[in-house]
Amino acid sequence: MIVVGIESSCDECSVAVVKDGRSVLSNVIATQIEFHKPYSGVVPEIASRKHVEWIMDVYNRALKEAGISSCDIDVVAATNRPGLMGSLVVGFSFAKGLAMGLEKPLVAVDHIKAHLYAPHLEYDISYPFIGLLLSGGHTVISMVNSFDDFEVMGTTIDDACGEAFDKVAKHFGWGYPGGVVIDRMAEKGCDTAFSFPDSVLKKDKHTYDVSYSGIKTAVVYQLEQFKNPGYESSPENIAASFRKAAIDMVLKRLDRAVNDTGIKRVVLGGGVAANSYLRRVLTEKKHEGWEVFFPSMELCTDNGAMVAAIAYEYAIRGRFDSLESGVSARVPDFKPYSSK
Ligand code: ATP
Ligand code: MG
Ligand code: FE
Fold it and tell me: Per UniProt, what is one Pfam family of this protein (predicted)?
């Protein structure tokens, strides 16, 4: 079964062709980073305009690279939630037009579920597992029972993890995208230079939630207060200490989730899954009997392959969406975790 997957929820315009949910025949990702760089963040208006300009070409390139023609397509899939409204509308409307023209079924894909499905393209992963989604807009720790069945254990109560990286980098004028820049700088810094707080952990010992407002305020407004004696306030030291605090925050919740559930299988997804400190710490967890699955770098950030891959799961079950379905900017209502 050939599925074409279209992703346009934010600033990546991507179309992929995936065979039988596993074999990536093409995964064309056109990133708009250079257009948003001057603003140190994604400008929604620019993002949707670029999607309109690019999507036809990206689609044609994806088919060409895959060596197929449009009549080989069995299913059309596209992200329809959550994300930037104008951006979602472009990719999803394109998908609807394509499905109508080719007379093929449509699958509307949840971007959050797609991010956590990405590692399935590269590994055989059995359920259940603890899913850790860390992206520009979301931070979710969940019990994942199947590709479509999530129980949310914890989320952020303010900024998303990637958003915190982006905001700190923007404040210091370090460059864009913030997560990538901070990760690079942090490799040259000392992460014990500053000890930034984890305010949520102090208040409630049993939560899986995270909060980035405390760390962000500390880094931006009260930097010197958190500096340890004998260290310099160099950008590299700030970056390294911030990265450690931001990632340790989620790692502590992840430890707790693994201990409480006894499930030592962990799957990462989203742009922050590319973070080198996070990958190093979690790779070591195999010594504690954990199985940890990271998407490869290309599949961490937004891409059409993860959309096509999860759509295959719906398609083989005959679960399709109407050409009248719409888009939604908001996170869907995942059910809360209930310990059994
Ligand atoms: P969402 O998936 O929640 O809708 P999004 O699609 O914008 O948001 P992604 O494309 O998954 O998010 O990831 C982008 C985010 O990942 C940005 O916030 C970026 O700074 C962050 N990021 C990318 N690489 C790294 C890295 N090495 N370390 C930390 N953060 C990173
Ligand atoms: Mg992006
Ligand atoms: Fe994303």
Answer: TsaD
Ligand whose nearest atom lies closest to the CA of 270: 1
166 lines ligand 1 (CB under 6 A): yes
Q: Which residues are close to ligand 2, an ion, with C-beta < 5 A? A: 10-12
ipTM tops 0.90: yes
Going from N- to C-terminal start, the domains of the chain cover 2-116+300-316, 125-294
**For the whole model, what pTM was predicted?**
0.95
- In this predicted structure, the answer to whether residue 255 has a pLDDT above a threshold of 80 is yes
What's the Cα-to-Cα distance from 27 to each of 107, 124, 220, rounded to whole Å?
18, 20, 38
Question: Does 134 belong to an annotated binding site?
Answer: yes
Q: Which residues contact 267 (CB under 8 A, 6 or more apart)?
A: 116, 119, 125, 129, 130, 131, 132, 144, 292, 293
User: CB-hemisphere CA count at 13 Å for 167?
Assistant: 19
The Cα 235–Cα 178 span in angstroms is 13
Q: Is the CB of 138 under 6 A from ligand 1?
A: yes
Among 143, 140, 137, CA closest to 165: 137
| Confidence band of 204 (pLDDT split at 50, 70, 90) | low
- At the topology level of CATH, where does 2-116+300-316 sit? Nucleotidyltransferase; domain 5 (3.30.420)
Query: Mutation test of ligand 1: which of 168, 242, 301, 310 has the most ligand atoms closer than 8 Å to its C-beta?
Result: 301
**Shortest-distance Cα residue to atom 15 of ligand 1:** 136
For 125-294, CATH number? 3.30.420.40
Domains 2-116+300-316 and 125-294 share a fold: yes
As given in the structure block, the two tokens for residue 333 are 């209502």
Q: 275 among the known binding-site residues?
A: yes
pLDDT tens profile 137-163: 999 999 999 999 999 999 999 999 999
pLDDT of residue 237: 98
Residue 156 three-state SS = strand
What's the pLDDT score for residue 280?
97
Q: Is 9 in the pocket of ligand 1 (CB under 6 A)?
A: yes
